Each structure stands twice: as C-alpha cells, then as structure tokens.
Amino acid sequence: xxxxxxxxxxxxxxxxxxxxxxxxxxxxxxxGVGVADVMRQAGLTHGGFxxxxxxxxxxxxxAVEHAGRRSNAALAERLRGRAGAGKSPLRLLVEEYxxxxxxxxxxxxxTVAALGSEMARSSDGLREASAxxxxxxxxxxxxxxxxxxxxxSATVIAxxxxxxxxxxxxxxxxxxxxxxxxACSASLLAQYDRGQYDSDTPAR
Length: 204
Known about the structure:
The protein is mainly alpha-helical. The protein has nine helices and no strands.
C-alpha cells in the first residue's frame, strides 16, 4: 500500500477511536472509558491501540479536546442557523445553551457541562486539556459580548451556563430542570444583554 494511503487509513482509524472515546466520555464519564470497549466500538483490534496512543491517559487528553472542538463547532453551526432573528449574539448563545434540548442530550452537548465534575480529579495532562475546554467556553461567550465587555463578564456567564445545565440534568425535565434553565437565562440576559437587540425586535 502506498505511503499516502497508509497514512490516510491510519488517520481514519485515529478519528474513529477519538469518536468512540468521545461517545463513551459523554455516556459514562472519564472513569467509564475502557480501551477495549473503545477499540471494539471503533471496529479495531485491541492490540492496535498503542499504534495510536501511548496510554489511556493520552487517549483521554486527545479525546476531550476532540469532543470539545466538535461540540463547539456544532453549537456555532446552530447559532449561524439562527442568525438574523433580531436577537443579539449573546441572547442567541444563552438561549441555545440553556435549552431543554441541551439539558436532555448530554452526548451532543458541551464537554465542560458533561464532564466538569470529573475534570478537577483527573491527571495533570487531562486536567490541562479540560482547562483548555473551559477557556474555550469562556472565549465563545466573550465573542458573543459587545466589544470591551471584558473577560470577567464572559467567565461569569460561562460558569453560570455550565452549572445551570449540570443542575438541571440532576433534577430532570419533570422535577424542576427547565425552571433552572429559565431562571438562569432570564438573569443572565437581564444583566448582560442590556442595550442589545430585544427579543421582540424584528429581524432587519
């Protein structure tokens, strides 16, 4: 097999392993990820694992980054689809993030909200990768704020959103979860969305 074809095939296998690991991370948490199960789900042999990763921890570091980039890209795509509705970027972000759909679908949502409680107990390498995902969430919020808003505001909003999703998931749909989302959304928008497009302003 030509070298380029081997490299392409290896990269495809690598991506399949990362995709399978990301699914397990969302479904079972960091502690629930098993190398044998990941390789089986990826359709690869267990023995081939070390051709891609030096250790389980190395796999988890890359998988957290992979899952975070993928979830942020999906969120950005959804926000682009809602652009032009006469709402500020911040309002669109808060409404999308603090939605019942996000609460219900852990496997397609924010990595920080899904794994935050485990991230601080992880190895140094995994904790640093997790910190990168936290910073990426703060950056996402800062980009939605008006220029000059500062990092503190973005940090407060990001922390509130991630915490609200975690608490809402604990309560569930029928025992107060949506109430937490609505309360936090209203509070954040009342405090930080002043002077931007009102939710009832028609699109221009």
